[in-house]
């Protein structure tokens, strides 16, 4: 069913100044600021929504709701960041080198601790051989796992779960805060040791943290967009980070060399698609200029593949995100992964899957999952778009 609010919210937070103002006014004219606030919370772009509607007239109840939720989001982010930084400090003291990427790194580099970047968790990358020590260190400092079973069992589950899309990580929790501890990041074109070797230090909350090289940070953001299937509700914040990242790269005279590195890393199709999405909202930005430059470096086939991913993004914007199971239908690798995982240990695989579904608040049995999938199978054109993403995400069949 078409969603009228989603396109307006995207215009507001991603669009050029004039388009953003018109979107804000349209939301206000439709008495949609209350729903807009709630949707911005879901999309994790509440600070940008608040800034975007600051120039329009809202009802007192809408204003109160927005202010209350904004304070809540900023407080939650501050608490989560503080807890994460304490965990990072503990790892450093234990001699475990951990790369901080995505949210916390964006706060330190792109937003400079400004309250306009919220986070839900902290993403860290360690070398595979350091995982047991890192987990033990975090558990000794108040974090805990909720997956059950042994670390070896969980590692095997992650390797055979297509939902992780090559993202090998374990989540540890403490007092409403989370650390996603990664040891493999397939799909970004670089290995963990390369990311760590090119890393640099930045300050966050009076603590030095290790963050990726600027181009590696861009690659990691693009990788996350692919992992989240180009669904607007999951990637809007990544798009904003990419927009800011391109501004920094252009300011430092590194925008063109960054595009060359993207091609060398073999991720030009998703990168071109991400930049293409940004260009569709604002053609006068460094991200748009990066898009045009990258187009000149890649083949017509790659440009066509990227265009299909841009189309997929806008389709999901209008109609809602496709269920992740749809992407499993159009590629053989996810089904092979699931079969391998169930074949190795049915009980362990289902237990870990159940824990993750409970955390994501969409646990369902196999019958319900199949019924939902049957209802959501899209038309042939959309299946082709899903297939284009699956080939980027999982590789060739």
TrEMBL record:
<protein>
    <submittedName>
        <fullName>Nucleotidyltransferase family protein</fullName>
    </submittedName>
</protein>
<keyword id="KW-0808">Transferase</keyword>
<dbReference type="InterPro" id="IPR039498">
    <property type="entry name" value="NTP_transf_5"/>
</dbReference>
<dbReference type="Pfam" id="PF14907">
    <property type="entry name" value="NTP_transf_5"/>
</dbReference>
<dbReference type="GO" id="GO:0016740">
    <property type="term" value="F:transferase activity"/>
</dbReference>
């Amino acid at each position: 069913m078409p969603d009228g609010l989603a396109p307006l919210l995207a215009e507001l937070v991603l669009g050029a100044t004039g388009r953003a103002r018109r979107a804000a006014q349209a939301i206000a004219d439709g008495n949609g600021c209350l729903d807009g606030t709630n949707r911005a919370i879901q999309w994790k772009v509440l600070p940008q929504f608040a800034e975007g509607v600051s120039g329009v007239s809202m009802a007192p109840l809408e204003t109160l709701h927005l202010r209350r939720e904004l304070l809540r989001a900023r407080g939650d982010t501050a608490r989560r960041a503080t807890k994460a930084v304490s965990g990072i400090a503990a790892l450093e003291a234990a001699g475990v080198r951990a790369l901080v990427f995505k949210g916390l790194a964006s706060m330190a580099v792109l937003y400079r601790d400004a309250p306009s970047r919220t986070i839900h968790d902290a993403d860290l990358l360690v070398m595979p051989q350091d995982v047991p020590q890192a987990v033990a260190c975090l558990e000794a400092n108040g974090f805990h796992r909720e997956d059950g079973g042994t670390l070896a069992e969980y590692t095997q589950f992650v390797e055979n779960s297509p939902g992780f899309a090559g993202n090998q990580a374990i989540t540890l929790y403490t007092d409403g805060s989370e650390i996603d501890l990664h040891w493999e990041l397939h799909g970004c074109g670089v290995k963990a040791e390369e990311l760590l070797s090119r890393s640099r230090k930045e300050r966050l909350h009076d603590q030095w943290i290790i963050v990726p090289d600027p181009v590696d940070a861009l690659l990691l953001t693009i990788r996350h967009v692919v992992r989240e299937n180009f669904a607007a509700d999951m990637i809007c914040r990544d798009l904003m980070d990419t927009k800011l990242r391109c501004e920094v790269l252009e300011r430092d005279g590194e925008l063109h060399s960054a595009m060359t590195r993207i091609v060398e890393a073999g991720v030009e199709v998703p990168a071109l698609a991400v930049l293409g999405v940004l260009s569709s909202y604002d053609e006068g930005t460094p991200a748009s200029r990066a898009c045009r430059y990258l187009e000149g470096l890649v083949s017509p086939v790659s440009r066509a593949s990227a265009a299909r991913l841009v189309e997929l993004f806008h389709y999901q914007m209008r109609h809602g995100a496709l269920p992740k199971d749809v992407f499993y239908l159009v590629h053989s690798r996810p089904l092979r992964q699931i079969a391998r995982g169930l074949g190795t240990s049915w009980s362990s695989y289902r237990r870990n899957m159940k824990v993750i579904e409970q955390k994501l608040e969409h646990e369902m049995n196999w019958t319900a999952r199949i019924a939902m999938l049957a209802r959501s199978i899209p038309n042939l054109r959309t299946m082709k778009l899903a297939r284009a993403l699956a080939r980027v995400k999982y590789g060739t069949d």
